[in-house]
Here is the input.
Amino acid sequence: MFTSFRVGVLIDDEQLVRDVESRLPSLPIAYWSKHKNVVQKKASCARYPSIFELEFNNIYWQTLRSTNGTFQLFGAYYDIRKRSRIGPAVRILGMIDRIEPRVKTFCQLWFDGQKEPFIVKTFEYKYIWFNKWGNYKQGIYQPYLIACQIPKPFRGLVPASVSLVEKQCDTATNNLRVLYNRPLDDEKRGFAVCVKGLDFLYDDLSVRLVEWIELLGMLGADKVFFYELQVHPNISKVLRYYEEQDRVHVTPLTLPGGQPNVPGFQHLFLSKKTTHKRQNELIPYNDCLYKNMYKYNFIALLDIDEVIMPRRPEDRTWHDLMERVVAKGMKLKNDTYPSYNVRNVYFFDRGDQHDHEWAKDTPRYMHMLQHVTRAKNYTKPNQYVKCFHNPERVLTLHNHFPIACLGGTCHSYPVSTDDAQLQHYRADCVRTLKKSCEEFKENQVRDTTIWKYKDELIQRTRHTLDVLGFFKPSSAGGGSGGSLLRGGKDSLYKR
Here is the structure.
């Protein structure tokens, strides 16, 4: 059956379903399309909700309005990791406008071929936050991971979708496709990088982004997963280019509930309401973990102004680094750690007033290669670190550390600064380090560790910028300076 007419092209139902599923992966539209004409038994407690009965919020969220709080649900994932004490489960990621929600809810689990759901009581609400961090108030959307155990008769079967309801027999207002991204050969790749929602509507960081993505590829990142709020057109151009090469994946993102999503207003909200910003960031971080937990050995959460840099000359990749680091950790506890944390150190920039010497034979647009002076001292251990997370061990993630882990306490192995450092390229320290920032700035040392990638990184970056048309025609093949033709200010990424 043909359903629509578009510029002379007929789109059939199957094509339409595939298109919607690609735009909204949490919607089980393929399953609904397959079963929408199935008549359920009259005695059935709950019926499968039509996709037209679901309550959507800000495009990507689905809603449950309970008698004690509103749930905005983002994704559902099938979890059969060996260290999970609750056994096979579906975990639902979302936000609830309650602290310590007490309302009882149920999961309606829909399995392919079943005419009615199997209903289980929600096992737990796992809070992805600490109350001491702020915003611990009723009425503010809080990040949660909700767990539903798979009943024994269905263990080994992956639910097609799940609905969260307050009463067992309710017709659901939400229905999330259960994601299970397991490789066919069951072989994991090395490293994935997850990047929180990009909020760069006015800052054109496209050239710096190219340098960063190319460096991550050289270090061994198999794929970079971006979440996109609002970005400059040149950044979109870069992301689309790398998506076509299958080197990055971009997931569009909105803020749930009554939070603003209008361009400009959203940026203002996130820059002024920093605690809300931090809470919202936990959704893409944990979505990225659960979509990729079966596909990669390690997952790193990084911002685009920082990179985990192996320091030893013999370590050219993260694989080289982690082979040594994991072996060191095994000697301490005869087991792998949930995460391996790397100390933060600032590589300062004075904005457009470059008071450093320009590195010769290096294009001036190579931001990281041109900034080889850093603070002498690292930030304190366990402060502002970034980690390589073991997805078999972590349950929920925060920007800097895992919050909860499978099988017990979240022990994180501190990687020696002789082995690696988190190179953080900023004009200033984070706000919470204002008092000690002057000391960092006054005591700096030269650090050219990144130059071991110099020639290849310049070549890769220049090639990409050329393909994207970011050079003026007269300099597309030419000098090391590489005159750029871009429409925006290459300003620093600010937290």
Notes: The two ends are 50 Å apart (CA to CA). The chain has ten helices and 26 strands. Residues 394 and 405 are 4 Å apart (CA to CA). Residues 189-467 form a domain with the Spore Coat Polysaccharide Biosynthesis Protein SpsA; Chain A fold (CATH 3.90.550).
